[in-house]
Write a sequence for this structure.
């Protein structure tokens, strides 16, 4: 008997029978004298006597082991699913900082983020200069997720003088991002309003880009019970936040996407507060839509039973 076989000792219970393998004092292992049996001896857990297991058919041992291994794998997968559902239904309140469209002096200061409660996540909803985004991303200890706006400002120069994306953040446009225990879908830019502009898209481009996420979101919904938690956009959906001018109109594709997937939160920028737009509202499907200009601190309960709270002013 090899030392490898003597090292392992475990028991798989299958109904009323047990398969014992790898006992430290194995007397025999295999067929003996033409007998159609397997005999394994090990110390009895109840007293000092030995317990013997005899199986008339050696094939039953292999079948039992296979069933035990399959049952163990199923148990492990079920445990992972249950842990995921516990996270969804008992998810703690998340503290989120959202910035958009303006370099606010309260954020762009030497002592940032002092004076703020610990943050779980930072979101940038577009039209912010790259130096500001890099500043925020390198000052906080939580994930920084961003989408671009329609002004093409979200770049910095590297040591060779090339324009590159700001460091320290996660670009979410057209992607599914997992951060701070949440699932975030990003869609930057604005509906096309003039020729030759940057950060613009047609309705067809938006439909194609968002539809590419459908297979992955379907798997997320099967795994978590919810396709995603936050839809981070630059443009607003049609509704109270849509601007009166053509450049700031609501995006129909974003509205359809929200109606179909029903995430907990949609955060956007693009529409400034000069028109007196409502800061937040809830869609008929239950999604809270929040317009951000400058910055906003949010405390959101993403659990199914939790009620999403309003933004907290600082």
């Amino acid at each position: 008997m090899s030392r490898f076989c003597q090292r392992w000792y475990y028991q798989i219970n299958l109904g009323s029978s047990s398969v014992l393998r790898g006992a430290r004092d194995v007397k025999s292992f295999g067929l003996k004298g033409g007998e159609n049996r397997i005999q394994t001896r090990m110390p009895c857990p109840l007293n000092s006597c030995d317990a013997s297991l005899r199986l008339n058919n050696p094939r039953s041992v292999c079948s039992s082991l296979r069933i035990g291994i399959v049952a163990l794998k199923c148990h492990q997968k079920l445990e992972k699913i249950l842990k995921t559902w516990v996270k969804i239904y008992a998810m703690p309140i998340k503290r989120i900082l959202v910035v958009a469209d303006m370099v606010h002096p309260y954020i762009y200061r030497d002592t940032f983020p002092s004076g703020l409660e610990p943050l779980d996540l930072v979101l940038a909803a577009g039209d912010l200069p790259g130096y500001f985004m890099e500043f925020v991303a390198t000052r906080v200890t939580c994930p920084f997720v961003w989408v671009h706006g329609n002004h093409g400002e979200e770049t910095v120069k590297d040591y060779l003088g090339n324009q590159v994306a700001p460091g320290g953040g996660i670009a979410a446009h057209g992607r599914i991002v997992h951060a701070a225990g949440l699932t975030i879908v990003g869609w930057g830019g604005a509906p096309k309003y003039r020729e030759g502009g940057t950060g613009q898209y047609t309705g067809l481009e938006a439909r194609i880009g968002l539809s590419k996420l459908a297979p992955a979101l379907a798997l997320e919904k099967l795994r978590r019970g919810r396709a995603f938690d936050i839809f981070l956009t630059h443009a607003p959906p049609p509704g109270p936040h849509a601007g009166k001018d053509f450049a700031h109109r609501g995006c129909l594709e974003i509205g359809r996407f929200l109606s179909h997937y029903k995430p907990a939160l949609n955060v956007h920028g693009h529409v400034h507060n000069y028109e007196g737009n409502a800061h937040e509202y809830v869609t008929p499907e239950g999604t809270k839509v929040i317009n951000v200009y400058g910055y906003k601190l949010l405390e959101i309960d993403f659990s199914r039973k939790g009620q999403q709270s309003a933004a907290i002013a600082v």
